[in-house]
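Re: that backbone. Tokens:
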């Protein structure tokens, strides 16, 4: 299947389904990213802290796919906040990736106690203007911090990448994003493969569509307008997750899945996380 793209507010586009590589070891990154590209994915979500940018870059280089047909995201890690550090961090990421630019560069966490996300966001505009990142956005930003960087700079992040799955669907934040033209990217979209995929309601829907629970969850993300990049290193699941593009949920099933929300966060709360 062909991946649909969504418009970023800066004029660029982003493939709505991608492949995420958190907890993918540097030893296997090249192999599994190569498999994902062969399966049809054209969007890779990595980060400095994942420690696998080199493998991601090698897989892209060896794929034979033109650079402009692959959307690559990486992220600035917490210790690199601040103007000068940010400018160095993008250069280092590009060097590890072996790329001249990334499609999207994100501030990974606001780490509010550090007090440097606004300065970092200003540096991101320089990074975008330099062409080293085509688009700039943020991750794990609560509404208050989003509003603050928008008010201070007039520059709206193209995306905010946040924890989001049917048990934690971020309805309020998604509305805020929509009202500012910010796309919502969903991390841990499958609830990290835990309880969510055993959910009875979800499994009943999956049976009706002759799809897997993971495919139903991915189809739900696509239906509500999220950008999504499930992670797996299992070859069959790499293909299974991509084939979710063929699952079209009807509106009622989308609403039922949205109704599964339990306010259940799996990862850290961005308002307090400061590590490292
Ligand atoms: P995920 O929700 O994608 O779950 C991945 C796990 O689900 C796998 O390890 C596997 O156990 C299971 N799984 C995957 N496909 C399956 C299938 N078809 N059937 C059954 N089980 C399946 O979790 P994730 O890795 O946390 O999130 C995806 C991506 O989001 C990451 O790789 C990363 O790119 C991004 N992310 C970003 C942040 C951030 O702070 N910005 C944080 C976490 C993750």
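Recovered sequence:
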């Amino acid at each position: 299947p062909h991946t649909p793209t969504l418009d970023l507010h800066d004029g660029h586009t982003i493939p709505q389904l991608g492949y995420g590589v958190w907890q993918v070891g540097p030893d296997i990154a090249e192999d599994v990213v190569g498999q994902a590209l062969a399966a049809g994915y054209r969007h890779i979500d990595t980060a400095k802290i994942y420690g696998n940018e080199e493998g991601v870059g090698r897989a892209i280089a060896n794929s034979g796919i033109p650079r402009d047909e692959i959307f690559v995201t990486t992220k600035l890690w917490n210790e690199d906040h601040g103007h000068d550090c940010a400018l160095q961090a993008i250069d280092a990421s590009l060097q590890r990736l072996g790329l001249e630019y990334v499609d999207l560069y994100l501030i990974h966490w606001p780490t509010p106690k550090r007090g440097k996300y606004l300065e970092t966001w200003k540096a991101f505009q320089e990074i975008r203007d330099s062409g080293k990142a085509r688009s700039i956005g943020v991750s794990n930003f609560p509404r208050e911090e989003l509003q603050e960087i928008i008010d201070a700079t007039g520059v709206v992040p193209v995306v905010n990448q946040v924890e989001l799955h049917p048990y934690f669907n971020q309805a309020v934040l998604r509305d805020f994003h929509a009202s500012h033209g910010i796309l919502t990217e969903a991390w841990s979209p499958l609830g990290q493969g835990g309880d969510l995929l055993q959910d009875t309601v979800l499994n009943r829907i999956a049976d009706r569509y002759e799809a897997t629970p993971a495919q139903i969850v991915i189809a739900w993300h696509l239906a509500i307008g999220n950008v999504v990049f499930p992670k797996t290193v299992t070859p069959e699941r790499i293909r299974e997750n991509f084939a979710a593009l063929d699952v079209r949920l009807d509106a009622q099933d989308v609403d039922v899945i949205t109704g599964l929300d339990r306010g259940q966060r799996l990862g850290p709360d961005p308002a307090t996380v400061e590590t490292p």
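The chain has a mean pLDDT of 97. The chain has one domain: 5-258.
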